[in-house]
Amino acid sequence: MTNSTPIADRVAVVTGAGAGLGAAIVRRLAADGARVVVSDIDIDAARGVADTIDGAIAVEADVTDENQIKALVEQTVDHFGALHIAVPNAGVGGVQPIAEMSYADWRRTTAVNLDGVFLTIRHTAPAIAAAGGGSIVTISSITATAGSPLIAPYAASKAAVRNLTETAATEFRDHGVRVNAVLPGFIDTELVTAARPDFEAALGLEPGGFDELMAAKQGRYGTPDEVAAAVAFFASDESSWCTGSSLVLDGGLAASLF
Ligand SMILES: NC(=O)c1ccc[n+]([C@@H]2O[C@H](COP(=O)([O-])OP(=O)(O)OC[C@H]3O[C@@H](n4cnc5c(N)ncnc54)[C@H](O)[C@@H]3O)[C@@H](O)[C@H]2O)c1
């Protein structure tokens, strides 16, 4: 009997998968038939997610540490025999105007959101190529597409991730590795929950004002499952001729000036 799920038996690694979008992405990839590695800097969170998925393993890795990323790839291949899908999802937020930002603040965000994606692509792509090919799906952001007041290093790193996705797509195409990006609008995860009071204070909004702003701009918050569905598309052969592309999911936020 054949297994008809879209990515049956492929092996997927998702970073930052102990919470939020990453947790929804590993659950969706597993539901689609993948064998998944739940990786996070917070190993307890990763274990909590892996424990809910048949056959999943949890691996602690800080995406800013190259040795830990190398070890993540090695442990994946040792345990499952190969790697076919990688989702460099780990990311951090923070709300601060440029005029008040230290260089250390800038580096803290760009280290995870950009350098971490570089390191993850750098070490997963050759392993995916060695397995006969597969897919990398980066998590950029709608903030990559325009100036984003109060979150400069976040938005700049997400714009860079989109460009890195395109470069990686060209460099790895002939090795059988597709690389695509999703650009979500605002999703109500811990990252946004933590930023909400700072946004409201900086923008002079009443408590609840940020939610109203998002409702006006996006219709509503997106859900982690909606992002996971887009990642699942790029991870599977349903998107077999897509590489270097970006998919916006934002309820129309970026489509309108008013
Ligand atoms: N929530 C949104 O509105 C939104 C929108 C667009 C893009 N994104 C992106 O989606 C990704 C996930 O965001 P989220 O909203 O789920 O955030 P989240 O804060 O809910 O979860 C992030 C996870 O990443 C882990 N993490 C943080 N630093 C890490 C590191 N150095 N190494 C490994 N893991 C680390 C955390 O422990 C946590 O489990 C991020 O890249 C984020 O920028 C989020």
From TrEMBL:
Highest taxon, organism lineage: Bacteria
UniProt keyword Transmembrane, yes or no: no
Transmembrane segments: none
One Pfam family matching this protein: adh_short_C2
Coiled coil: none
InterPro entries associated with the record: NAD(P)-bd_dom_sf (IPR036291), Sc_DH/Rdtase_CS (IPR020904), SDR_fam (IPR002347)
UniProt keyword list: Oxidoreductase
Family: Belongs to the short-chain dehydrogenases/reductases (SDR) family.
Protein name as annotated: NAD(P)-dependent dehydrogenase (Short-subunit alcohol dehydrogenase family)
Species of provenance: Williamsia serinedens
